[in-house]
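Usage

Read records sequentially. Each one opens with the input sequence:
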Amino acid sequence: MDTWFAVPETNWKTALLLVPALAFAASSASARRLERHFKVDARPIVTIHSPSGTVTVKAWTKSEVLVIADIASEEVDLGAAQDGNHVDIGTRLLSNNISPSDLRADYQVNVPENAELQIHNDAGGVTVANVLGDMSIETVAAGVDLQDVAGYLTVKTVAGSFSCARCAGRIEANSISGNFNFVDTHSTHIQAQTSTGNIIFSGEFLPDGEYRLRNYSGVIELRFAPGDSFDLSATSLKGKVNNEAKLIPPKHSFRSSPREGDALFGSYNAAGRARVSLTSFDGTINVVKR
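and closes with the structure output:
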């Protein structure tokens, strides 16, 4: 595939250094709207690169990828090309001296529901709805909002938040300072780790599912319903564990409470137990009814 659509490495590095400005910069010129259409087969791969702006991806029933881009200035253009069943979309730089506000491009992309997504967005936001294929999303300051998606989902942010509503499949999320919010999820495997962010989980505990939530500081909140069933391990080395669940202590436990901090081990209900692990260094862990 032609490489001229990709942002040069030196410009990507410059964009990363300008992230604080990108997050709040306003467009300095009237946006141009550009549109591209690509016919695809089943399970296409769609790659999107954006240094600044919103990326919105929605599924539809057509065997086609539709790209609509609102470009902030004449200094950038839409780069979109197809190689077989792979569609590559990105912001094409037309100058080496571009202001942060001129980098902005907002993308609206429609894809078949079984498409595989690979998205990189530095500043702005990423929203994906009703896409059932695997996806990998990386951002710097951009937040990520997933709704009604499935497949193998990997999300990595530096400072962006992550929200996952009615998500299924396998979910792995990592951030430095972003907050995570899992709402009404239907996943058998969730692994989420953030350094200084908060994590809220209010989803379904599937039989034999595994749910691992970890942070360094902040709040981890697990919300459970009366019909849920899980084995729980919750530990905060320097912080506090608050619990509203009536747990059955393990009969033969090799675990012991840490000398510092707080820990909690036990089972909630019996049949089809999921495995839940909550770990923090000096944050607060809340196990509460929903």
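Summary fields computed downstream for this record:
- The radius of gyration is 21 Å.
- Helices lie at 9-17, 19-24.
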